[in-house]
Structure formats: C-alpha cells, structure tokens
Design a protein that fits this description.
77% of the residues lie in helices and 2% in strands. It is mainly alpha-helical. The termini are far apart.
Length: 358
C-alpha cells in the first residue's frame, strides 16, 4: 500500500529566517526603554561632545584595528587553504564594518565579506567558514581577556566572574558533547553522510563536526600566536576609542578605574539584540557607570560618543563599497558593449572585403 507523504506546510519557516527580525525588534525595544528611562538628553549630550580631535583619533585607531583584524582574517583563510592578500583583506574588512554598522542585524557585512571571498576563490563554503572562524577567534580572545581584567581589577561584577566562567565552560562543553553525540548517532543511522528524517535527506552532523575539527586544527591552531596577538591589538583599539569617548564627555577618573567599566560596556555589544551595536551597550554603560559612582547619564553619553566614533571610523568602508559599485557598473557596460563591438568589427571587415573585390 502506497501512502502519499504529507507536503510540508508552506506557513512553516526555519527559525533562522525570523532571527534578523527578532534582533531588530529587540534592539529597538532596548533603545526605546533607555530613552524612556533616561530621556533623550544623554544621547544628545553625547553627540554634541564629539569634536574634531576625537574623530581624528577614532579614525586613526580604527585604521590600526582594521589592519589587525584583516591580518587575522588572512591567517585563518590561509590555514583553510584559500589565499587572501592583506591589502584586499583590509579593503573588504572596512567595507564589512561599514555595512555592519549601517544595516540591521550587525552581521550582514561579515556575510557579504565571506560570500565575496568565497566567490573569488571558487569555494563559497571555505570563504564563509574563514570569516566565521575569524570572528569566533576574535570574540573568544576578547571574552577571555575581559574575564581576566574583570577578575583582577576592582569592578562591579568581580565577585560574579568565577561563577560566570564555570557557566561558560560548562555550556561550551555540553554543546560540544551534544554535537559529537548527535554525530555518532547520525553515523550509525546514516549512509554516505546523510540520513532520512521526515522524508528529507539531511547532512550528517558527523560531517559538520569533522569539518569543524579540521578547520580548528589547520586554520586556527597553527597560527594561534599571531591570531592571539592580532585579537589583543583589536581589543586594545576598541578600548582606546571608548577611552576617547569617556574623556570627550568629561569623565576624569583614573584609567585603572575606567578600564573595567569600558570592558563591561564593550562586552555588552556581544549581546545579539542590538542595532549596529546600539542598545545593550548604552544600557550596560548606564549600569556600570552608576555602579562605580560616575552616573548613569554620564555612561549613556559616553556610550553614545563611542557609537558615533565607531561609525565614523568605518567610513572608509563606504568609499570601498562605492568604488566596487562603480567598477561593477563599468564592467557591466563593457560586457554589454562587447556584442555591439563584435558586430561593428564584422560589418567593417565585410566592407573591406567588398572593397577589395571591387
């Protein structure tokens, strides 16, 4: 007896399709709550505190951090077997930073960077994975260094750090065990890297785990000292820009007291419910500044200045994006003109032949 398979419901969508919308709405909600709580004054005060000196410092520091980030990307890409020159990586990284700060979601620039590189090397999977591992490496180093700073220096969360480390390590270990466990189960059930679920073939998780292990052992571990160094420079650069932002708003506390606060504020940017970094960053700044006696509104103003300076530092990416669009249009015009040129050449050749015969 043959039974028809139920067609998948057209109304069902993969959860990831809703994630950009959730992220955008979450970021807007956080910003709306902050404006309701503190008013627009701290945000406007922060914007008015931006001056030429702060902008120049942010652009200069941003150039250093961008070069270091692009260098880290080339190291990971080379380990995965796909070449990437540093000059092109710097331009692409500027472009991705600009897109990340101006488009909802905060990751579209990185996706674009990975897709373009994958197309250039004719290996989309490796191009995307190189960007993904580069971002993971940077975030991992940042979180690790931040934990050390918050544990060593006096901070509002110093007593919570040991428990937080235990939770992070436990979550990472549990996630890896779940993935490898699923991989083993799929290996027993599937054949040829696939197994049937609900009438569809899905890729074996074991293959994904194997790919991850290969990328880590070949792309990250051989270059880990350089990746670590580049990531530390990037982190120091972001902290330096936030220090400029705090000084621009009149915060005069010693650097040792400000460093844990800056680390907490930048850690909040890891929270995915943001709009180009805006949202949780300002909320954490308000709480951290208030907890250290610097004032919540002062924290919101400093975080606002940082957001503006960080955005200004990515403006070279707009020039890279514009230059790419111009080149693409020029290439399209040249490609479109080729058939017409070929026809003209053929007509001219035929005319010459007729004249010769005459």
């Amino acid at each position: 007896m043959i039974t028809a398979r139920a067609a998948p419901s057209p109304s069902r969508r993969p959860p990831l399709r809703w994630w950009p919308v959730i992220r955008l709405l979450g970021g807007l909600s956080v910003l709306a709550a902050e404006i309701w709580r503190f008013g627009a004054g701290p945000f406007l005060d922060g914007i008015s505190s931006v001056d030429v000196t702060a902008v120049a410092l942010a652009v200069g520091i941003g150039a250093v951090t961008t070069v270091c980030s692009a260098w880290r990307w080339t190291l990971v890409a080379r380990g995965l077997g796909i070449g990437l020159p540093l000059v092109g990586a710097v331009a692409a990284y500027y472009r991705s930073q600009f897109l990340n700060t101006t488009l909802p979601g905060g990751v579209l620039g990185d996706v674009h960077r990975g897709v373009r590189h994958g197309q250039d090397v004719d290996n989309l999977g490796r191009g995307l994975r190189a960007v993904g591992w580069e971002r993971v490496a940077g975030q991992t180093v940042f979180v690790a260094v931040a934990i050390v700073v918050l544990l060593v220096l006096p901070s509002p969360v110093q007593s919570w750090i040991p428990a937080a480390v235990i939770v992070l390590v436990g979550a990472a270990g549990a996630g890896w065990l779940i993935m490898t466990g699923r991989a083993g189960f799929a290996g027993r059930v599937g054949e040829g890297g696939q197994f049937r679920v609900g009438g569809r073939f899905r890729r074996q998780p074991g293959r994904m785990v194997g790919t991850m292990s290969h990328d880590i052992s070949n792309g990250l571990l051989p270059a880990w000292p350089k990746v670590l160094l580049a990531s530390i420079f990037v982190m120091v650069g972001h902290l330096a820009i936030f220090y400029v932002a705090m000084r621009s708003t009149g915060t005069t506390a010693p650097v040792v007291d400000l460093l844990p606060v800056a680390v907490l504020v930048l850690l909040a940017m890891v929270v995915p419910l943001n709009i180009g970094g805006w949202g949780p960053r300002e909320g954490m700044a308000a709480w951290a500044f208030a907890a250290t006696g610097l004032g919540a509104t002062q924290g919101v103003a400093a975080a606002t200045v940082y957001g503006v300076l960080a955005m200004v530092a990515t403006l070279p990416g707009a020039a890279v994006l514009l230059a790419g669009l111009v080149d693409r249009r020029a290439g399209h015009r040249a490609t479109t003109a080729e058939p017409a040129k070929a026809i003209l050449r053929a007509v001219g050749s035929a005319s010459e032949n007729d004249a010769t015969r005459g």
